[in-house]
Design brief:
Layout: E1 27-31, E2 35-40, E3 47-48, E4 69-73, E5 80-97, E6 106-113, H1 116-120, E7 137-142, E8 147-162, E9 167-180, E10 188-191, H2 194-210, H3 227-240, H4 246-256, H5 268-285, H6 288-293, H7 295-306, H8 331-355, H9 359-385, H10 395-404, H11 410-418, H12 431-440, H13 444-460, E11 478-479, E12 490-491, H14 515-524, E13 527-531, E14 536-539, E15 548-555, E16 558-566, E17 572-577, E18 583-586
Parallel strand pairs: 11-12, 14-18
Antiparallel strand pairs: 1-9, 2-5, 3-4, 4-9, 5-8, 5-9, 6-7, 6-8, 10-15, 13-14, 15-16, 16-17
């Protein structure tokens, strides 16, 4: 319970009320719609005063009944409206009603949508639309002269249908209820390319929306703590917000509900990601007490992972063998990727156990890691000899993990896989690791070009947050998400998607897609953490085709402020202002 929250004194007589009460960590704001996208008005006499819904509201009914939108239903026609709230948000809907002559409740249908086409669709069992995880299509009653609040989902668009014949609905206000953590953006990034600036901020906002009571993967679907999905999100939290309690709260939740020998979320690689997140969280924040609180589970997990290797050093992970969804049809890539993740796990285990003073387990991690590195040539060869195209789903995922684990030279991974076909074969989740592997190969310009092409394409289609998945093959003849789909055009939301995110089930706000945000701060602005708690950081800018870049980076001691400018001779002039507790190494 937050210390600043207290129940009113009248509750003191209720036994255990204070100790058993949970206070919401989030802020609630009410958002007025920005435009009317569409209306069904019959002969033009069913709706009047519609523009009143675009005026700022106050959430209060009144007896003046003047600033009203009136929707009239007849036996022949029932009116509908579709509202746009300007950008994706997490929350619900507030409806303020007036006082028509008939005082009986009015029946309406409400449909939320992350796209216009989703808000306009029916749940038909074929198009992917559903009420799973969050109600997005339902009927309700509105009172005479009252206020109703309903809904809890991720959305940008709302359609409202009047369901009654020969009735009037008086709407004074229809506002989105925006639930979010009211926290400052301590990290920042700006350069002379507005497309990259917008991509950085969109990734930051995507994760911000998923920072609810816990750190979710998506705000429409699945609204769960998927710990593998969390790694790119946590890196964005580190880059943009600094320390936030939502991260340890979520890591502890998944730990507590997953006693060993269970795999987190039923996926072996996700238990590895829990370990890797703790390594990165400790480096960015240096909270040794929190790390010590993980020691029992962390040590048991490492021993469990070690038991899943054979005498030759090959991983033998069971459970769901998973990297990301597009990799699922590429078992050779999965084998290579899991071997690489296990090598990374042993390296992280060595580092963390050394910090925690368990030299025996640290040594066991080192020995296992060395054995796995020697055995990795076979999975690398299997990937190289496979007939799967280098830009086919799974290939770039595996190559990036091999490169980051030191099992394939980054230059080889970049040349043979990552740079083949540009953004073809990228995925929103593992795209982060592909970008990092390209940086390890020194191909910073190529990575920036992919960011502009791949994540920028979602912006071109109307995105205000980044999606669960995106495929460059979806682009030809595709319409955007912020308007009705013209005849002859493809619906980028309703016509595509695969696996668990087919068609309208596809989440258009998924935190694992935020990779460019932390990548741009780490490799273009150039901030890399060298010692735990950011006590030592290395600043190495890579401007590529940019003329300048500036920004801030949060640390436990305050923000580092940085600006790099490219001079006429191609060299970089840098200005760095850091808290006195931080040692920075500038490498231009």
């Amino acid at each position: 319970m937050n210390a600043q929250h207290q129940l009113p004194p009248a509750w003191k007589s209720v036994e255990k009320a204070q100790s058993s009460t949970q206070f919401d960590s989030r802020t609630r704001a009410y958002i007025t719609p920005t435009r009317v996208v569409w209306k069904q008005d019959g002969n033009g006499t069913l709706i009047s005063g519609l523009d009143n819904l675009l005026l700022p509201g106050n959430g209060q009914t009144d007896l003046a009944n003047t600033r009203i939108c009136v929707m009239k239903g007849t036996k022949a026609n029932r009116p509908s409206i579709l509202l746009d709230f300007g950008r994706e948000l997490q929350g619900g809907l507030q409806l303020v009603t007036g006082m028509p002559a008939d005082q009986k409740p009015v029946n309406i249908r409400v449909r939320f949508g992350e796209s216009v086409s989703e808000a306009m669709c029916d749940i038909d069992g074929k198009n992917g639309a559903s009420n799973d995880h969050a109600m997005r299509d339902f009927k309700m009653q509105l009172p005479w002269l009252g206020v109703s609040e309903v809904g809890n989902s991720g959305f940008r668009f709302v359609r409202i249908d009047l369901l009654d014949d020969d009735r009037e609905l008086h709407l004074k206000e229809v506002r989105a209820i925006f639930n979010y953590r009211d926290i400052p953006y301590l990290g920042s990034f700006r350069c002379n390319d507005e497309r990259l600036n917008t991509i950085w901020m969109t990734g930051a906002y995507t994760v911000h929306l998923n920072m609810q009571e816990y750190l979710w993967d998506g705000i429409k679907r699945d609204r769960l703590v998927w710990v593998g999905d969390l790694h790119p999100e946590v890196m964005t939290v580190n880059t943009v917000f600094g320390y936030n309690e939502v991260v340890p709260k979520s890591l502890d939740l998944i730990r507590d509900i997953t006693p060993l020998p269970q795999w987190m979320n039923g996926i072996s690689s996700y238990s590895i990601w829990w370990l890797l997140i703790h390594r990165d969280w400790y480096y960015y924040h240096g909270d040794l007490n929190y790390l010590k609180a993980q020691q029992t589970y962390l040590s048991d997990l490492l021993r469990f992972l070690i038991s899943k290797t054979d005498e030759n050093g090959h991983e033998k992970l069971d459970g769901n063998r998973f990297l990301d969804w597009p990799s699922n049809a590429n078992p050779v890539a999965i084998d290579a990727g899991l071997q690489a993740l296990m090598v990374q796990a042993m390296k992280a285990g060595n580092e963390l156990c050394t910090v925690l003073g368990d030299e025996a387990l640290a040594a066991e991690c080192r020995r296992t890691g060395e054995k796995m590195v020697k055995a990795s040539s076979s999975v690398k060869k299997a990937l190289l000899k496979s007939k799967v195209a280098p830009d086919a789903p799974g290939s770039k995922q595996a190559a990036s993990l091999l490169a980051l684990a030191g099992l394939m030279k980054p230059e080889e991974a970049d040349k043979k896989y990552l740079s083949v076909g540009g953004a073809n074969g990228f995925s929103t989740f593992y795209g982060y690791y592909m970008l990092r592997a390209m940086a390890a190969a020194g191909n910073y310009q190529g990575a920036m070009d992919v960011i502009r092409q791949y994540w920028g394409a979602m912006l071109d289609l109307g995105a205000t947050t980044f999606w669960e998945d995106f495929n460059m093959e979806w682009l030809p003849n595709a319409a955007g998400i912020d308007g009705l789909v013209p005849a002859g055009k493809k619906d980028i939301h309703g016509d595509f998607g695969a696996y668990c995110y087919k068609n309208f089930r596809h989440s258009l706000c998924h935190g694992w897609a935020s990779g460019p945000t932390s990548w741009l701060s780490e490799y273009v602005l150039g901030v890399q953490v060298v010692e735990p708690g950011c006590k030592v950081v290395r600043i190495t800018p890579h401007l590529g085709d940019l003329e300048w870049v500036e920004g801030t980076f949060p640390t436990p001691y305050g923000q580092i402020t940085i600006r790099h400018e490219k001079k006429a001779d191609g060299t970089i002039k840098s200005d760095v202002q850091a808290p006195k507790e931080i040692k920075y190494i500038l490498e231009n």
